[in-house]
């Protein structure tokens, strides 16, 4: 399955760290006037952070972003609109809130084929 963000096709090796530990249910505990505890559960539909990660270091790279992909993702971030994230683990509507990307090599003149590792943080909407 292809990994994509807002229609931008990305590396199939990108990971979603912590996706399985996200909260699916919100819990609220309140006391009645008589002192009894009342527990309420509600499914969480949105608002959770999702991180898309490309890892590199020690000569190993797991996933990557190209210069062209980073430029396209930056354009989506500036728009501030919801886009679709598609990954092997599912599909979500997200808004990009932060990028923390670093070039794999120290290069002075980045081109469309240069690679970046790091994370893109999004909020599910």
Structure description:
The chain has 125 residues and is mainly β. It has a single domain (3-124), classed as Elongation Factor Tu (Ef-tu), domain 3. The chain is built from one helix and ten strands. It has one helix spanning 67-79; strands at residues 3-5, 8-10, 25-31, 37-43, 49-57, 60-62, 65-66, 83-87, 90-103, 115-124. The strands form two sheets. Strands 1, 2, 5, 6, 7, 8, 9 and 10 form an eight-stranded antiparallel beta sheet that branches. It has a two-stranded antiparallel ribbon with strand order 3-4. The chain is elongated. The two termini are 23 Å apart. The model has no long low-confidence stretch (mean pLDDT 82).
What would the keywords be for this entry?
about 120 residues, mainly beta, Elongation Factor Tu (Ef-tu), domain 3, eight-stranded antiparallel beta sheet, two-stranded antiparallel ribbon, 10 strands, about 10% helix
Element layout with pairings:
Blueprint: E1 3-5, E2 8-10, E3 25-31, E4 37-43, E5 49-57, E6 60-62, E7 65-66, H1 67-79, E8 83-87, E9 90-103, E10 115-124
Antiparallel strand pairs: 1-2, 1-8, 3-4, 5-6, 5-10, 7-10, 8-9, 9-10
